[in-house]
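Input for the complex:
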Amino acid sequence: GESVGLHLPTLSVQEGDNSIINCAYSNSASDYFIWYKQESGKGPQFIIDIRSNMDKRQGQRVTVLLNKTVKHLSLQIAATQPGDSAVYFCAENRGNSGGSNYKLTFGKGTLLTVNP
Amino acid sequence: DADVTQTPRNRITKTGKRIMLECSQTKGHDRMYWYRQDPGLGLRLIYYSFDVKDINKGEISDGYSVSRQAQAKFSLSLESAIPNQTALYFCATSATSTPRGRGANEQFFGPGTRLTVL
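Predicted:
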C-alpha cells in the first residue's frame, strides 16, 4: 500500500553529535518531500524540502538526502543542540496525478532527544 | 506561527455535544486544511478547502464538517462528539505559489487545539 513511514520512532543523541532521521516512502509518484519539526505544544514547522529531481539539499545545519532507488529520505542535523529536541515528520506530495498536488501525506514522526 | 491562529487552544466536552473549532489566518493564503494528530499516527487530513465555498473531504472526514466562511477563516465542527475524537487538531494554510519556488506544497500550521471528549 501507499505509506510514508519512519525507521526509528525515537532517537537519542548527545549534544554536539550529528543526528540522522530516516523516512521510507512507497509511492514512486511522489515528487516533493518536506521535513517538519514539531516542538512540544506547537504546530509543525517547516525545516527543509527537496524535489524528486534532486538527491541532496542543504540548509543551515540540516541536510536532506533523497534516494529514489530505494524510496528513502533522510534528515541530517549537524552539531545537534538541545533546541533540536522535537518530533520530526517527513511528508510527501504525490505529484499531479488525480489532481492531488495540493495534499501532503505525513509520516508518523520520530522523537529526537538531545542529551546535554 | 502567529499568522495562523486557532481557538480554542484547549477544550473539554462531553459525548454528544456539538463543538466548533475556529481557524483564522493573516497570510492571505487561498488553501486551508484541517488535520488531526493522534499519538503514533502522525497527522491525518480531515478536510481541505482551496477557496471560499470550496470544500473537499480528506482521509478521515466521517463525523466532521467544515465551513469556509471567508478566505481567512476555516472552521471545523463535530456535530456530536464522541470519545475517539479526542485528539490534537491542527489547521494549516498554503498558497498557490510561494517565494523560493516551493509552490503549493509548503503548509503553515497553527498552534493546535487539544480536544478531549469525555
